Hints:
The chain is an alpha/beta fold. It has one domain (8-468): TIM Barrel (Alpha-Beta Barrel). It is built from 16 helices and 14 strands. Strand 9 and strand 10 form a beta hairpin. It is globular, with a radius of gyration of 21 Å. This is 6-phospho-beta-glucosidase. Belongs to the glycosyl hydrolase 1 family. It holds the Pfam family Glyco_hydro_1. Keywords: Glycosidase, Hydrolase. InterPro entries: GH (IPR017853), GH_1_N_CS (IPR033132), Glyco_hydro_1 (IPR001360), Glyco_hydro_1_AS (IPR018120).
Amino acid sequence: MTIRNDFLWGGATSANQYEGGYNLDGKGLSSMDIVPSGNTRSDIIQGYLNSFSIDNHLYYPTHKAVDFYHRYQEDIALFSEMGFKAYRLSISWTRIFPNGDELKPNEAGLKFYENIFKECKKFNIQPIVTISHFDVPLYLVKKIGAWKSRKMIDYYLKLCKILFEYYKEYVEYWLTFNEINMILHAPFMAAGITFNAEDNEEQIKYQAAHHELIASSLATKMAKEINPNNKIGCMFAAGSAYPYSCDPKDVWEALKVNQENYFFVDIQSRGKYPNYALKTFQHKGITIVMEENDEQILSKYPVDFISFSYYNSRCIANKNSDAELTDGNLFATAKNPYLKTSEWGWPIDPLGLRITLNEVYDRYQKPMIIVENGLGAVDTINDNGKIKDTYRIQYLSDHIKAIKLAIEEDGVDLFGYTAWAACDIISASSGEMKKRYGFIYVEADDNGIGTFNRLKKESFYWYKKVIQSNGEIL
């Protein structure tokens, strides 16, 4: 078994980190449009700071992002030059429905994405579209509490119906929610959820998750009815949790973390709440409010494929351990003494990707695609005007080697890989520009100051060879 000839090599971005133009052509305010960079960012994305207005003294990275809104033709042409077979992007909900509850969509927003898809089609690039990628209409956050309310399902499905119908001739691959498990770790960023001091946070997060899971299943049903060729996937933040030691207490804690991580996909792929989750709810006093047909909806409309992000593995110690902690993709984890870390303290573990691919495939036996994998690093332009990001090439090369082994030696069914990110974008967790991921350098700083000109990094030319050789030249 080798990498298939139609393997979807490409790159990925998200609307709120990439587009900019936050108030142009009728777009409404998104939840992330009121999240500034700086000291308060972490508390806001975790739902602890309920600030729903723009403070002119602060900088909001989504407002400019990297100006894909005006440069999409230039960028997609660069993607084509690299040889992209696929481009994973997301829809900004408030470009289509500025408040989220309008009866009719915003035509300018629909046209913007149609133009993007036409550009992709011109270059034979397959769009993979995330319907909701850390993006909720701010109006619905204030009006109904976003995904706290079951009413969000109807608003979401209205968006889905427009997208499935309007872009029927352009898009066949859809992801319902980005990193759906991040609702447990960054609830405002993931789902527009905020908390008051007296709130039962676990109850709120899991009830909101249930609303998203029902919405995902109903979107899957709708997608098939509108276009039988549609393929619907779930998406979660992956990365196997290792026990910090062979102490059974560490092994047990790691097992529980993995269960929490797979909880959403267990439901989206297998169609029902797993027993371990029901017992956890019982122990924690969590009651999921369901309507009469909810279990049937989940059972009847599972996803077609599994997609995930992978940046690092995690290392889990029991509460009495003296293990040192580090961060990775908003997950606190014990520091793994066998792994090096990135400039932001994220463990670098290519073998962990092979392990994760095996675990996910063994668990679900469904086709998979990696839709995010990359290295956040500070890139500099040298005296010759070049960006030599050899560290990124090394990271990606090692991870793609692990992918090849998972396919060729282990037999996992993987049909694509879209690196994070296709182009430099703002960081979701920190709001920084200096934490760069792309193959294409954007000349801008953390405060959105710069020409926004595009420069090809060394990794640009390397990835082009990877795609041309179907993963043989690394």
